[in-house]
Amino acid sequence: MPHESFTVRETASKLRLSAASVYALCAAKKLRHQRVGVGRGKIVIPSDAIDEYLARATVSSADPAPEAPGTSDQKGVKAFAHLDPQRLLAAWKEQGKA
Question: What is the rounded CA–CA span in Å between residue 58 and residue 86?
Fold first, then answer.
């Protein structure tokens, strides 16, 4: 018995993504798919491919989350200390926001 397959739009709905995101996942070969038909054909995604993708995309809660760039507090230096407050204020004034 063949596995159930879904269109790009159906897969997007199941993953709660846009169709463009599903096309991008297929193009990046992160989501297994098949092309059926003539020419470039139509993309169909087997149901087990969706399960495989979700399994690979799952992040274990036991792993610590990666720290966002620019937020570390190394040697007592506060995050974003490299920003010049005078230049920021001048830029805001130019845009009429301050």
Answer: 43
The predicted model gives 60-82 an average pLDDT of: 64
Q: What is the pLDDT of residue 1?
A: 45
pTM: 0.58
Whether residue 42 contacts residue 56, with contact meaning beta carbons closer than 8 Å, is answered with no
